């Protein structure tokens, strides 16, 4: 069981997201995941860390479960699964009420805002994303 702090991010569906079949185009989910993960970072990381680091997406693996429509009330829930070096691994679940619309596994690279080179996060920063025994949790998440 994860002790990651879940971050809920409301999704705004725009008419431009709707494809020729009358539901949200698959590409829109990528836009939503990026916005949700970055909002998660800004909401939980210390302001100094936010100012010093940028994030670049490396990989998204999306499993589409149900179609999403223009008037749906959609929430993305983001969890930081683990950090390895400069990489962070996330799970994002996109839901309409209790219905899972999509599940996304993604990996991201942390970049130093000044040098634009990969950067490792400190234990102190990573601790902001987990609850419980912080040393134990961070130790597990750094593997």
TrEMBL record:
PANTHER family: 4-HYDROXYBENZOYL-COA THIOESTERASE FAMILY MEMBER (PTHR31793), NOVEL THIOESTERASE SUPERFAMILY DOMAIN AND SAPOSIN A-TYPE DOMAIN CONTAINING PROTEIN (0610012H03RIK) (PTHR31793:SF27)
Superkingdom of the source species: Bacteria
InterPro entries: 4-hydroxybenzoyl-CoA_TE (IPR050563), HotDog_dom_sf (IPR029069)
First and last residue of the signal peptide: none
Similarity-based family: Belongs to the 4-hydroxybenzoyl-CoA thioesterase family.
Pfam families, per database record: 4HBT_2
GO molecular function terms listed in the Swiss-Prot or TrEMBL record: fatty acyl-CoA hydrolase activity
Name of the protein: Thioesterase
Record keywords, A-Z: Hydrolase
């Amino acid at each position: 069981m994860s002790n990651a702090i879940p971050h809920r991010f409301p999704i705004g569906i725009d008419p431009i997201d709707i494809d020729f079949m009358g539901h949200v185009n698959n590409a829109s989910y990528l836009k939503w995941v990026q916005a949700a993960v970055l909002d998660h970072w800004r909401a939980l990381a210390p302001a100094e860390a936010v100012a010093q680091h940028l994030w670049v997406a490396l990989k998204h693996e999306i499993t589409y479960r149900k179609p999403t429509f223009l008037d749906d009330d959609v929430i993305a829930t983001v969890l930081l699964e683990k950090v390895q070096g400069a990489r962070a691994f996330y799970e994002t679940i996109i839901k309409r009420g209790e219905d899972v619309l999509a599940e996304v596994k993604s990996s991201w690279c942390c970049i130093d805002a000044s040098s634009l080179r990969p950067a490792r996060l400190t234990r102190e920063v990573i601790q902001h994303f987990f609850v419980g025994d912080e040393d134990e949790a961070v130790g597990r998440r750094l593997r």
